[in-house]
């Protein structure tokens, strides 16, 4: 179920009036309403949206716009479109950074004063806001001088500010920020593609579609530019009081040359140069470009005079001798002049040289100038694209800004105007198809009682221009593809014959000049046929292409080589003409527009003289009518296909939120029989209406209509629903925030508990490991100690049994045996021995019979004594002092004859129960305590 906005009653009435102006009584009442509306003049400027004007007529709309213009308000909504009036003077703070931020940060920018930034922001949010992001297009239209280029620049500035990506800034010195580079493409393209015309001092002589590429975070990461049909004829010839492309004047002003060039009659050269530097066009390339431009200017001064001998080429005009064009273009002067004056005809494998007439020479010269300039322009566009275009993998969406030349109608119009007006027809058709027709057809198919608003459908005009099989373009192309000299009269006859049945084309029977008049949506334009076919062929003499492929100017060499590669010489029906190329490029543009969500801005030129703050009603009304603003307002074309249930179903679901108003829950209101989907929708709509208790039943009916599958709402109803929806959404947001905070709190708590648990587990594991290690170590120590003690015991026993015998018979043998087994090293007086951990008694016993000296020292000695006495090692409780021990031992059981002093610091009685060893005579320390002397 979809939602559409319904035009208010008065607007519908207005539409009926426009459609039935013949009805006198209706007309009278409408006039009355118009008068009533206009009497309140002070209020007219307050209408921010022209859909609120009542009644909607060209007069009321015009008056409102005029009132707003007089109080310096230049933007006004007109349903889905934005009307932008050109102030023709800078307005302070209208486009400042603060204003941009204000619109960008506003929760509802639509509630702010109408501005081009609302359009920009809406498109920007649309990309973000969709479930499936949709590319956007901002179509800026209007006639020449209406402010399209200005508006496009504002849009680009806006995106370069709000979507600026600081991450792209890799190094400020080497890599210029992408936003800066995107903006710098403007001065270059304006210098090479804009010119001063009678209608606009800075008129774009080409169309452009700029694609601003956004990454996943909606940041500007690149851009690409597509250009359409540069008006290259301007290089060689400009209409009276108009100028050549700006760049020629910029270069001339800079070089301060006093030459007078025929092609041109002071400008921001520094800005262009800076932009070139920022985009990476180095000094060498710049020099090459400027030399070529100078070469084109000098080429324009080459003039020819007819030769007296027809078989000889034309002569050069006196003033043209010494012309520097060949030198500047880096080609041979002789060859250049030959190519300009002599045509090479191919007859099989033979080449025939044919001198050209004076007129043909001039055409060839102009043709060369045009082709060189057009190729330089194309090269620049490609260079800019290479410099600003992001890698395809880095961007996912784009916002396109379309700025095409406005509708043109001059005294003499030719192929350029035909193409430009054709492009405007195409854009108008896109608008008509997208809003005016689609919207109303939808109302009818939904079964609404809708009085169809008449709008100007330009399909028949487009059929005339581009239709198949017979149309202006098809006949023009046929004529251009025939291998014969073009004849304006022949083409005129063919057009008359083939298209006489079409109401959009006509001929002035009294005119002597071959022409045809087309009734465009914006007005009738008469086109001169003379020269049209030749322009459509756009021939470039192959001799000139070959010559410039040999140019020593590297840039010229490159662009002519590329041209050959792009344009293989196709003949006959396949031949590419200007019209066929333009038609193809427009078709691809239309495909892009159809695949994107469009946003229309209609620029209006308030006066033809570009005077500041001057509002000419006739001028404005023509433009309003031409672009169908009044019809757009009538249809109130803000038809946005959103799901009604999806958008407003939540109001019904969150009945509690509304229940506080004392209104019944929707569930109870829902009739039991509504099983059918459409019935259910119907009921739901009524429920929603009931929720707004302030509305009476009758009022519901006027505010809301239910179609077969769609709901149509008036603005008032929509506002109510939107308000309610906003309230509920903010309540939901609050609940979500609470839940989220609660969740965060719980998660933090759970994490802390888990961390404590893990810490405890790790600590206990570490302690267990440590204890196990200690246990193992204790076991090893115990085992070793036990083994050592047993060994000592067994040694002592063995020594006791054998000591006597050994002493008498083989003491030295025993001594060495003991030494071996017990690691005791004894020595005679002459050879002191060291005792390690050996019972002193045993040590003494194993000493030689003559005096023995224990030479163990310090700690070891003390330990030996303690071990032999079986004393426990208690630090600080006693001190063992072994002073001398020179005696003859008969047995270890014998009382030591030397002296062993134990100085107890605590009571020796503590150790009274201690036995120095088993089966020995020493019964306690008390005995040892007695200092014995020999
Ligand atoms: N919003 C604006 N504020 C101030 N001046 C403006 C504004 N819009 C346009 N202008 C002025 O109007 C002039 C013409 O505008 P602009 O060049 O944008 O017209 P255009 O529609 O692009 O014309 P063309 O189709 O010939 O290129 C600008 O040079 C500028 O001086």
From TrEMBL:
One Pfam family, short name: Myosin_head
GO CC terms in record: cytoplasm; membrane; myosin complex
Transmembrane segments: none
Ranges where the record places region Actin-binding: 586-608
InterPro entries with a match to the protein in the record: IQ_motif_EF-hand-BS, Kinesin_motor_dom_sf, Myosin_head_motor_dom-like, P-loop_NTPase
Sequence positions that bind ATP: 142-149
GO molecular-function terms, A-Z: actin filament binding; ATP binding; microfilament motor activity
UniProt KW ATP-binding keyword: yes
Location of the Myosin motor domain: 45-726
Swiss-Prot/TrEMBL keywords: Actin-binding, ATP-binding, Motor protein, Myosin, Nucleotide-binding
Domain of life: Eukaryota
GO biological process: actin filament organization
PANTHER family assigned to the protein according to its UniProt record, in alphabetical order: MYOSIN, UNCONVENTIONAL MYOSIN-XIX
Family to which this protein belongs: Belongs to the TRAFAC class myosin-kinesin ATPase superfamily. Myosin family.
Name of protein: Myosin motor domain-containing protein
Gene that produces this protein: myo19
């Amino acid at each position: 179920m979809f939602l559409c906005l319904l035009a208010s009653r008065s607007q519908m009435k207005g539409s009926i009036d426009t459609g039935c102006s013949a009805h006198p009584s209706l007309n009278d009442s409408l006039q009355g309403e118009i008068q009533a509306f206009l009497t309140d003049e002070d209020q007219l400027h307050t209408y921010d949206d022209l859909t609120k004007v009542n009644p909607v007529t060209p007069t009321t709309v015009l008056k409102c716009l005029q009132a707003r213009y007089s109080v310096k308000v230049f933007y006004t909504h007109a349903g889905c479109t934005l009307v932008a009036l050109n102030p023709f003077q800078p307005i302070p703070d209208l486009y400042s950074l603060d204003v941009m931020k204000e619109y960008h940060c506003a929760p509802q920018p639509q509630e702010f004063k109408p501005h081009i930034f609302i359009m920009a922001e809406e498109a920007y949010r649309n990309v973000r806001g969709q479930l499936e992001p949709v590319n956007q297009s901002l179509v800026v239209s209007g006639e020449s001088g209406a402010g399209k280029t200005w508006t496009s620049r504002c849009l680009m500035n806006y995106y370069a500010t709000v979507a600026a990506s600081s991450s792209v800034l890799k190094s400020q010195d080497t890599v210029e920020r992408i936003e800066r580079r995107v903006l710098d493409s403007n001065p270059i393209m304006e210098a090479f593609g804009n010119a001063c015309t009678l209608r606009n001092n800075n008129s774009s002589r080409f169309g452009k579609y700029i694609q601003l590429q956004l990454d996943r975070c909606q940041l500007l990461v690149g851009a690409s530019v597509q250009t359409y049909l540069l008006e290259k004829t301007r290089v060689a010839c400009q209409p009276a009081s108009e100028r050549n492309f700006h760049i020629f004047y910029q270069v001339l002003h800079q070089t301060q040359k006093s030459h007078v060039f025929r092609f041109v009659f002071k400008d921001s050269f520094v800005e262009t140069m800076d932009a070139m530097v920022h985009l990476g066009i180095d000094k060498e390339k710049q020099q090459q470009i400027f030399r070529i431009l100078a070469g084109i200017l000098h080429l324009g001064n080459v003039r020819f005079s007819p030769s007296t001998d027809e078989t000889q080429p034309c002569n050069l005009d006196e003033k043209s001798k010494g012309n520097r064009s060949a030198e500047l273009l880096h080609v041979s002067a002789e060859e250049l002049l030959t190519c300009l004056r002599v045509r090479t005809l191919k007859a099989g494998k033979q080449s025939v040289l044919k001198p050209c007439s004076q007129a043909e020479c001039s055409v060839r010269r102009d043709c060369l100038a045009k082709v060189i300039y057009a190729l330089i322009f194309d090269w620049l566009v490609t260079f800019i694209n290479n410099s600003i275009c992001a890698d395809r993998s880095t961007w996912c969406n784009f916002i396109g800004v379309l700025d095409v030349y406005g509708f043109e109608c001059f005294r003499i119009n030719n192929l350029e105007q035909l193409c430009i007006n054709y492009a405007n027809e195409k854009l108008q058709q896109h608008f008509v198809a997208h809003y005016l027709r689609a919207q109303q057809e939808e109302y009818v198919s939904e079964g609404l009682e809708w009085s169809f608003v008449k709008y100007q459908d330009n399909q028949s005009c487009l059929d005339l221009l581009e239709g198949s099989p017979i149309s202006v373009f098809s006949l023009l192309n046929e004529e251009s593809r025939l291998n014969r000299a073009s004849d304006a009269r022949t083409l005129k006859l063919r057009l008359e014959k083939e298209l006489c049945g079409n109401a959009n084309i006509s001929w002035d029977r009294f005119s002597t000049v071959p022409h045809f008049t087309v009734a465009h949506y914006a007005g009738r334009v008469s086109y001169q046929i003379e020269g049209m076919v030749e322009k459509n062929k756009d021939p470039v003499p192959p001799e000139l292409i070959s010559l410039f492929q040999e140019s020593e100017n590297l840039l010229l060499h490159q662009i002519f080589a590329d041209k050959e590669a792009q344009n293989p010489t196709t003949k006959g029906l396949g031949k590419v003409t200007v019209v066929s190329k333009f038609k193809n490029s427009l078709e691809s543009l239309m495909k892009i527009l159809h695949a994107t969500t469009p946003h229309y801005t209609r620029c209006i030129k308030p006066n033809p003289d570009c005077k500041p703050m001057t509002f000419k009603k006739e001028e404005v009304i023509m433009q309003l009518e031409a672009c169908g603003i009044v019809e757009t307002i009538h249809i109130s074309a803000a038809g946005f296909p959103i799901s009604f249930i999806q958008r407003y179903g939540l109001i019904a679901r969150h009945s509690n939120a509304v229940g506080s108003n004392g209104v019944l829950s929707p569930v109870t209101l829902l009739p039991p029989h509504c099983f059918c989907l459409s019935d259910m929708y119907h009921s739901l709509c009524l429920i929603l209406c009931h929720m707004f208790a302030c509305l009476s039943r009758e009022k519901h009916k006027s505010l809301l209509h239910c179609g077969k599958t769609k709901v149509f709402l008036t603005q008032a109803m929509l506002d109510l629903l939107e308000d309610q929806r906003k309230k509920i959404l903010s309540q939901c947001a609050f609940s979500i925030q609470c839940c989220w905070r609660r969740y965060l709190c719980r998660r933090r708590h759970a994490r802390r508990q888990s961390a404590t648990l893990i810490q405890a587990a790790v600590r206990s594991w570490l302690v267990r490991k440590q204890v196990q290690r200690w246990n193992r170590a204790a076991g090893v120590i115990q085992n070793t100690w036990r083994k050592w003690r047993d060994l000592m015991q067994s040694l002592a026993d063995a020594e006791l049994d054998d000591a006597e015998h050994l002493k008498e018979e083989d003491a030295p043998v025993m001594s060495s045996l003991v030494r071996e087994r017990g690691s005791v090293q004894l020595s005679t007086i002459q050879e002191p021995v060291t005792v390690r951990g050996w019972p002193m008694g045993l040590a003494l016993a194993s000493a030689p019979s003559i005096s023995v000296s224990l030479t163990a020292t310090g700690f070891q000695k003390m330990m030996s004594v303690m071990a032999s006495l079986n004393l426990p090692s208690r630090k600080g409780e006693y001190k063992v002092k072994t002073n001398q021990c020179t005696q003859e031992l008969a047995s270890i059981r014998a009382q030591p004859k030397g002296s062993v002093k134990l100085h107890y610091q605590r009571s020796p009685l503590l150790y009274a129960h201690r036995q120095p060893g088993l089966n020995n005579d020493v019964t306690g320390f008390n005995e040892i305590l007695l200092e014995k002397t020999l």
